[in-house]
């Protein structure tokens, strides 16, 4: 009799019938997910509307092509000057004052950026260490 019960349970599992505790957990998880989805959609729409109001109120506009040209032509000219006279670059680097406060501040920024980059790598790989090894093509 016991063997018959075990067989029926296995047969029911393989047919897709699951225990109530698993389906209850899954439905609770699905309910929480739907609640988070609704909240994120709501706050996304609120943020978009707020951004639109700020855009209109501040009379913001995208930059014109003339502005882009001016900025990038100026950068190009500065780059050419720097390439022609590398000693000027070295002298400007030597004139930078490195105080303890600046080193701590910029070191903190660097650590934060490194942490965000590492977090993105972990999310992209979907594991903490290494990439999947695929067979050669």
UniProtKB/TrEMBL annotation:
The terms under GO molecular function for this entry are: proton transmembrane transporter activity
**Which keywords label this protein?**
ATP synthesis, CF(0), Hydrogen ion transport, Ion transport, Membrane, Mitochondrion, Transport
Q: Where in the cell is it found?
A: Mitochondrion membrane
User: Can you list the GO cellular component terms from the UniProt entry?
Assistant: mitochondrial membrane; proton-transporting ATP synthase complex
Q: Where are the transmembrane segments?
A: none
Q: Which GO terms describe its biological process?
A: proton motive force-driven ATP synthesis
What is the superkingdom listed in this entry's lineage?
Eukaryota
Name the InterPro entries for this protein.
ATP_synth_F0_gsu_mt
Per the record, the major location class is mitochondrion
Signal peptide positions (record): none
- Identify its protein family: Belongs to the ATPase g subunit family.
- What name appears for this protein in its UniProt entry? Subunit G of the mitochondrial F1F0 ATP synthase
Print the organism lineage.
Eukaryota, Fungi, Dikarya, Ascomycota, Saccharomycotina
């Amino acid at each position: 009799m016991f063997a018959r019960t075990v067989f029926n349970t296995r047969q029911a599992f393989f047919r897709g019938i699951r225990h109530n505790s698993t389906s209850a957990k899954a439905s609770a998880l699905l309910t929480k997910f739907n609640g988070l989805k609704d909240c994120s959609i709501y706050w996304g729409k609120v943020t978009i509307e707020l951004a639109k109001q700020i855009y209109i109120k501040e009379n913001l506009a995208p930059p014109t092509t003339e502005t882009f040209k001016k900025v990038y032509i100026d950068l190009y000219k500065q780059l050419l000057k720097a390439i022609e006279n590398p000693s000027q670059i070295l002298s400007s680097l030597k004139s930078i004052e490195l105080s303890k406060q600046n080193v701590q501040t910029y070191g903190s920024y660097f650590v934060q950026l490194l942490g965000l980059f590492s977090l993105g790598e972990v999310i992209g790989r979907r594991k903490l260490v290494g990439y999947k090894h695929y067979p050669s093509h």
